[in-house]
Design goal:
This protein is 34% helix and 20% strand. It is built from 13 helices and 16 strands. The radius of gyration is 21 Å and the shape is globular. The mean pLDDT is 97.
Length: 411
């Protein structure tokens, strides 16, 4: 296959991309097509790497309103509603809903997804189902699974044993929820436990960290210190960290030094954190987000995730990472032209680094031919106008193809 005359990641110099046996074999200003080679004339169109969602919950997806709606909109009421819904989970129920959502995500250009899976369930129903899903979707989606202790590790009966059982079953990463543990002591101990378990089973770490507006919630400093001292560093991700939006500037100044040394990843989920955050404030109301702009300016890797898609924590969501990015740029006031132009990195390269898949990700000769073609000349216009995803190409195969609609305005 030969893709002709595209702008690769906003580069105004148009280039051809040649694909052979699922890999990129050539990138040049002009490549002569081989005999009978499929040609896509995409002159002037934008090409970027596939979208990455490093934070979603496929076990709870498509359950909004069951058994009831979260009318308060708080994180804690969402946890309570999910705890009730969790009692009725079945293997097929989880698989059906997860695959439904993954197909919706794929239609929007997603090819890499990391799902947190609640393992505070003695039978691990959702985890076992999603392990099967991970295998079934391999031809068109790379799915990672995180053992997520929704109701705590030390604060849930046999929480440690369930986490280790999940590790043995074959998850890709281990999670934690230090801000939901009963005490500060439990919070710190849970993080030490997870780091030790990850080292034992050679797994990544992705912890829900300080997802609360409480400035006294400081699991992040513990997680970052453990990442630094163990050498795990970039194998560790701190998701949410919304309490950082409530920390005082003097503390953040000190903390930033540690974060740069630790070299961990961050995932912010603008749609959900804007919705859940500040619920206990009158005015002024906090935005419920971590300090994305400051972390990015300090060279710390930050990615955006969608988090929840129609579940007890978020009643909406359609699997489109452009929604999360659009909200994130507004909420963090990262609206300079250059910031918008290059913002695709929050939902592409930065997410790939978080998922630890950089060895087979990106538009380079020798790497898998996986990328997106948009009906625009740069990402600024793609995001601003929500132009069509013309093609999603995965390992040299066309997963999604769109014919732009014809619009007739009779005025």
């Amino acid at each position: 296959m030969l893709i002709q005359q595209v702008s690769i990641e906003n580069n105004p110099e148009l280039q051809d991309i040649q694909i052979v046996d699922g890999k990129i074999t050539g990138i040049a200003t002009h490549i002569e097509p081989a005999a009978d080679e499929k040609i896509i004339d995409a002159t002037g169109k934008l090409v970027i790497p596939p979208f990455v969602d490093p934070h979603v919950h496929l076990d709870s997806t498509q359950t909004a309103g069951d058994p009831r709606w979260n009318e308060s909109g708080t994180l804690f009421d969402g946890i309570q509603i999910w705890s009730e819904r969790k009692q009725t989970l079945t293997h097929e129920d989880v698989k059906k809903r997860a695959i439904q959502t993954l197909k919706i995500q794929a239609a929007h250009g997603l090819q890499f997804v990391r799902s947190h899976v609640d393992v505070t369930d003695p039978n691990l129903v959702a985890l076992k189902a999603l392990i099967e899903v991970r295998e079934e979707v391999k031809p068109w989606m790379e799915l990672q699974l995180v053992a997520f202790p929704q109701e705590g590790i030390l604060s849930f009966p046999h929480g440690k044993e369930l986490m280790e059982e999940a590790a043995k079953l074959g998850v890709d990463a281990l999670g934690a929820i230090p801000h939901f543990e009963f005490t500060r002591e439990y919070s710190v101990e849970s993080l030490h436990f997870v780091v030790e378990l990850a080292q034992k089973y050679n797994l990544l770490i992705d912890a829900h960290t300080d997802e609360i507006d409480d400035p006294a919630s400081r699991g992040l400093e513990t997680l970052a210190t453990l990442a630094l001292e163990t050498g795990l560093k970039e194998k560790v991700t701190a998701s949410h960290t919304t309490a950082m939006g409530s920390y005082n500037d003097a503390y953040v100044y000190k903390l930033m030094r540690l974060l740069k040394m630790a070299d961990i990843n961050f995932v912010s989920n603008p749609l959900i954190n804007m919705y859940l955050g500040g619920r206990f404030d009158t005015y002024p109301k906090r935005r419920g987000l971590t300090r994305v702009k400051e972390l990015d300016a300090n060279g710390i890797n930050v990615a955006f995730g969608e988090d929840d898609i129609k579940d007890p924590w978020y009643p909406m969501g359609n699997g489109n990472m452009l929604d999360s990015l659009h909200m994130g740029l507004h909420a963090t006031q990262m609206m300079g032209y250059t910031e918008i132009l290059n913002s695709y990195r929050f939902i592409t390269h930065n997410g790939a680094r978080t998922m630890h898949v950089e060895d087979h990700y990106g538009i380079e000769v020798g790497k898998p031919a996986s990328f997106l073609i948009f009906n625009a000349d740069d990402f600024y216009n793609t995001l601003n106008e929500r132009t069509e995803l013309l093609y999603s190409i995965h390992n040299g195969e066309i997963l999604v193809a769109t014919t732009p609609a014809e619009v007739h305005i009779n005025i």
